[in-house]
Amino acid sequence: MSSTTSTRQPLWLRCEKKEFERRAALTPTTARKLIDAGFDITVERDPQRIFDDEEYEKVGCKLVDNNTWPSAPTEIPIIGLKELPVSTDPLPHTHIQFAHCYKNQAGWAAVLTRFARGKGTLYDLEFLQDEHGRRVAAFGFHAGFAGAAAAALALADRKTNSTSGPLKGLKLEPYNNEHAMVADVKEKLSKVRNADGSPFKPKALVIGALGRCGRGAVDLFRKIGLEEDDILKWDLAETAKGGPFEEILQVDMFINCIYLSSSIPPFITLDTIRAAGPNRRLSVIADVSCDTTNPFNPIPVYNVMTTFDAPTVEVDVGEGNPPLSVISIDHLPTLLPREASEQFSGDLLPSLYQLPERKTARVWVEAEELFKKKLADAVAYEAQGGK
Ligand SMILES: NC(=O)c1ccc[n+]([C@@H]2O[C@H](COP(=O)([O-])OP(=O)(O)OC[C@H]3O[C@@H](n4cnc5c(N)ncnc54)[C@H](O)[C@@H]3O)[C@@H](O)[C@H]2O)c1
Predict the structure, then answer these.
(1) Are residue 187 and residue 293 in the same domain, yes or no?
(2) Which label site among 24, 71, 180, 310 has the fewest CB atoms less than 10 Å from its CB?
(3) Quaternary structure per UniProt (predicted)?
(4) 293, 165: one domain
């Protein structure tokens, strides 16, 4: 769409209402690019967003009050990241967001029937796909990056503060930028010493290392100064022999980043952990994949999700054995809201440029077809009394 076109494409960036969510679907950088391409961008003021309102104003966005999108003209598409607060209000707009309602998640039909009642449309960000069926934008890289950082912080905490029992002091908070995260992790790890006073050199194993999350985890380990030989990178080829894997017990940190699509043998079990006895090196597992409740979870040694306030859960390692902590946080990119938003929004841009042609552009047409199918399922489900 050219900026000389008389009708400019409007797009409204709404606030996020999910607790701790500081990321944004549009950043000042991508908003500016859209404006240059012929868009009019309206941005709701939002104190929880990592980007200041003024940053959007400076690049030419029109600022409006927080949470005012319900009264926006219905022809303006509304873009946001996470779910809308639970409500039964009809949704007459076009919404672009993660709605988490296509896989029969709790409350899925109630979310979709709001669109049916309002005659609105949902383009779910998780289902905007390229011609090869891959997502056009995803947060994986920064999930892996942050998961590896959290593991390194837990390791440093374990080695410097407490030798046994739960890691009580560790809390995670979003960092202003990647530089601050890397500096913090490096500083905390630098305090760890071996028994002879020499610097401690951690070793890590990343499984799923060729994927988005895995590449992010490897990048963090490189940036905090791990030696290349101390970052073991495994993907399908290395796990083809089938777990459990002794190698996991012989590193300090294990970062699981696989995309689980079928039943596979476990990577590690309580038996292998206990059998390793008191000399086990493994101290922290960051389960970035977080298939915690999946029956095929390849890390069946814990069963709860953890949080920024209490990031670790202890594995029942058996009497006399060294502690083992697991991190299983399902919104890790929130730890790096600025970079995660920039990367996601940048990856989304080519599709957003096609928004004015959304009735014919493949990426939008396919997303709308999927929405219509899911909408019909939800309407039928509610008509049968939610069964
Ligand atoms: N915790 C979070 O905050 C968070 C955020 C984003 C994504 N995720 C999750 O992380 C997982 C990975 O996402 P992604 O975007 O990196 O996926 P991806 O498809 O980009 O990468 C997955 C990688 O895992 C590898 N893999 C699959 N099965 C394997 C096996 N059995 N052994 C070894 N390697 C295997 C694949 O070859 C691929 O390289 C997904 O489950 C996703 O939902 C978690």
Answers:
(1) yes
(2) 71
(3) Monomer.
(4) yes
Per-residue pLDDT tens digits for 48-57 = 999 999 999 9
User: Which CATH number do you get for residue 196?
Assistant: 3.40.50.720
Residue 35 lies in a domain: yes
Q: List b or e across 126-140, with b for residues whose CB sees 16 or more CB atoms inside 10 angstroms.
A: ebbbeeeeeebbbbb
**188 noted as active-site residue:** no
Catalytic position from the list 17, 62, 95, 100: 100
SS3 content of the chain, % helix, strand, coil (to 5): 35, 15, 50
CA–centroid distance, residue 247 to ligand 1 (Å): 20
Residues 204-230 have pLDDT tens digits of 999 999 999 999 999 999 999 999 999
Q: Are residues 156 and 298 in the same domain?
A: yes
Q: In testing the pocket of ligand 1, which one of 20, 210, 258 has its CB within 8 Å of the most ligand atoms? A: 258
Euclidean distance between CA atoms 67 and 315, whole angstroms: 42
331 among the known binding-site residues?
Answer: yes
Q: What is the pLDDT of residues 76-89, one digit of tens each?
A: 999 999 999 999 99
Task: List pocket residues of ligand 1, CB cut-off 6 Å.
Answer: 138-140, 143, 207-208, 210-214, 235-236, 239, 257-259, 264, 288-290, 329-333
* pLDDT tens, residue by residue, 133-186: 999 999 999 999 999 999 999 999 999 986 788 888 899 999 999 999 999 999
> What is the reported pLDDT for 340?
97
Verify whether residue 93 is a known catalytic residue: no
Q: Is residue 3 part of a domain?
A: no
> Residue 84 domain-assigned?
yes
Regarding whether 43 and 154 lie in a shared domain, the answer is: no
Residue written as tokens 């309206």?
Answer: 42
Q: Is 219 annotated as a binding residue?
A: no
Token output for 154 = 């837990």
233 bridge partner residues: 206
Structure confidence by residue, pLDDT tens digits, 245-282: 999 999 999 999 999 988 999 999 999 999 999 999 99
Q: Are 245 and 239 in contact (CB under 8 A)?
A: yes
Cα(38) to centroid(ligand 1), Å: 36
Mapped onto helix, strand or coil, the DSSP state of residue 39 is strand
Residue 93, domain extent: 9-137+336-383
